[in-house]
Inverse folding.
């Protein structure tokens, strides 16, 4: 029995040595690599994959401010992920968002806008300031 235990321990030791060998991953950016900044993402899923399109918005105004406005939403790039890759992305984002919030505080969903102060009436005797 001692030999069986020793041979099993030797086999386990050999297996753990094989597992301990590391894999090095080298990140390579091809010549056509580009980086984009996106203000939002939209997409969906099918039974086969998840699609996320990253976009930027550009306001376009036509006529005076009372008329309708148009916002051009430009999809800069689309990422297609397998369900497993989407799950891993979700886990990675959740971890990094928690780390970010622990350092900088909660992420606000909306950008607060400064409150406009009411316009104060100007006295008739006020001097003209600046350019006309």
């Amino acid at each position: 029995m001692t030999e069986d235990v020793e041979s099993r321990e030797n086999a386990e030791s050999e297996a753990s040595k094989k597992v301990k060998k590391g894999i090095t991953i080298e990140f390579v950016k091809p010549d056509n690599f580009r980086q984009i900044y996106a203000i939002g993402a939209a997409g969906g899923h099918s039974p086969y994959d998840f699609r996320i399109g990253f976009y930027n918005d550009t306001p376009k105004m036509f006529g005076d401010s009372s008329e309708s406005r148009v916002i051009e939403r430009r999809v800069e790039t689309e990422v297609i992920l397998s369900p497993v890759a989407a799950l891993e992305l979700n886990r990675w984002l959740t971890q990094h968002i928690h780390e970010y919030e622990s350092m900088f505080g909660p992420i606000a969903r909306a950008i607060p806008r400064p409150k406009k102060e009411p316009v104060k009436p100007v006295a008739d005797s006020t001097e003209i300031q600046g350019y006309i």
Remarks:
- The mean pLDDT is 81.
- The longest strand covers residues 69-81.
- The two ends are 103 Å apart (CA to CA).
